[in-house]
Amino acid sequence: xxxxxxxxxxxxxxxxxxxxxxxxxxxxxxxxxxxxxxxxxxxxxxxxxxxxxxxxxxxxxxxxxxxxxxxxxxxxxxxxxxxxxxxxxxxxxxxxxxxxxxxxxxxxxxxxxxxxxxxxxxxxxxxxxxxxxxxxxxxxxxxxxxxxxxxxxxxxxxxxxxxxxxxxxxxxxxxxxxxxxxxxxxxxxxxxxxxxxxxxxxxxxxxxxxxxxxxxxxxxxxxxxxxxxxxxxxxxxxxxxx
Length: 242
Fold this sequence. Notes:
Layout: H1 2-22, H2 40-49, H3 57-71, E1 77-81, E2 92-96, E3 105-112, H4 121-128, E4 142-148, H5 154-162, E5 167-176, E6 179-187, H6 189-196, E7 199-206, E8 215-222, E9 225-227, E10 234-235, E11 238-240
Parallel strand pairs: 3-4, 4-5
Antiparallel strand pairs: 1-2, 2-3, 5-6, 7-8, 7-11, 8-9, 9-10
Helix pairs in contact: 2-3
């Protein structure tokens, strides 16, 4: 039964992956005009040319979306930005590749740039974006990812655990100059049921610049070792509970 489910998921994800490579989310919008920016650098240039205030919610939110997009690559997420007036609450979308599966999992991502603590209601809002997902990211086997600048509160952790859909919470702090750092990852049992069983999280310590504190970064664990598809496995400093 499990093999049949994996074969079905593999065929679905092949189609979705092909669509991600050949199309952009902007093609699902009414307008076919190319986006004015596609990276943090091009957005900053666009913001300067349009006199967008750095204190505006659009400026702060878009910067954080690009920060999350770049930072999540280290966790093997392949994403495109879909944020905009007609994004239906979806800031990023794409795939998550994990070593326990031979195919990637589809993901929908919301990025919360709020400095204040996130409430459990935000998890319920994340559940609502599934209905507005583009073709290829609909159905039961899609993961909702919530990125925020603060650690998950007890209420948020409980909301993630009890959610009826697969949910991942990732805390990404802004280190400045376009650099992000993953400080917390947790997900619910629904994510494990999609194939993440056996994948864990751990911590490694990154040397800071002169005069700065050593930074702790949360990473993925596979078979007791730090896992990154672009690097050789290395020993972990500290295992962390999900």
